[in-house]
Design a protein that fits this description.
Length: about 80
Amino acid sequence: MTDPRLEDHLVGLELQLVELVEQRERAEVQRRPRDAARIQADIDALQEEMARTAETVAKPDAYAPEFHYVEEAGAA
């Protein structure tokens, strides 16, 4: 069982990645190489974070919620 928050985080990262790729492509078309290079650095960092998060999600015991049971009064 994986942490649903990590899966949500991955979706958010993917959406950010799509946006950054579009920005980089616009910068390239508009002949703004410095902006394209800066955006590419952001893309690289985002891809690294996605890879780390995906590895965590892929681990079988990455998310093991703890369950705490309270004994009812009088139960033996």
